[in-house]
């Protein structure tokens, strides 16, 4: 069964690889944010609970987060596996998840801080259509203008260096214990995330056969 958990700092390329793996392996790429939004939009009983918690300014509990994930993984499109991105975030979530699924492969995206900073700080996003560009690796044909719709490109606050450093600190604080948790179980595989996505996909497929 191809059940995957992707762990890695912002800018490591988890999302880019997940899109390609999901397509290639015919499994869904699932983020907790997507699960929350879908349940809130559809006004499911779980979604109503989540909306009330978020509206009150509180954090969604580990118990409720795991309940939402369990519900999502029971859907027919997960029968051949799935990629979880952004879950689990805490040790309690990881411990609860072992009761939901005890057959999971954890992929740890390893990358140096300076590469993450360079990748994220050079990213530009279209205000109109949300398309992503990179001034170094994927520049627009006209500086500051989206190739797809002609919209204005801008740098998100999240992609400014001070914010990147803060996000990386938060990631380390939350995720290093998770990496140890899964390493102790012998369930983790490290991938060098500094290489191009297509090369990374090739390495991934060598390790994880369909």
How would you briefly describe this protein structure?
This protein is α/β, with parallel strands linked by helices and 210 residues long.
CATH class of the domain at 2-111 and 168-203: Alpha Beta
Q: Mean pLDDT, rounded to whole units? A: 92
| Large-scale geometry | globular
Q: Tally of extended strands?
A: 8
Percent in strands: 15-25%
CATH architecture of the domain at 2-111 and 168-203: 3-Layer(aba) Sandwich
Q: Strand sequence of the main sheet, in spatial order?
A: 2-3-1-4-8
Structural class: alpha/beta
* CATH superfamily (homologous) name of the domain at 2-111 and 168-203: P-loop containing nucleotide triphosphate hydrolases
Number of helices: 8
SSE pattern, N- to C-terminal: EHEHHHEHEHEEEHEH
Question: How would you describe this protein?
Answer:
- It is built from eight helices and eight strands; from the N terminus they run E-H-E-H-H-H-E-H-E-H-E-E-E-H-E-H.
- It is of the alpha/beta class and 210 residues long.
- It has a domain of 146 residues: Rossmann fold.
- The protein has a five-stranded parallel sheet with strand order 2-3-1-4-8, with helices on both faces. A three-stranded antiparallel sheet has the order 6-5-7.
- The protein is globular, with a radius of gyration of 18 Å.
- 26% of the residues are buried.
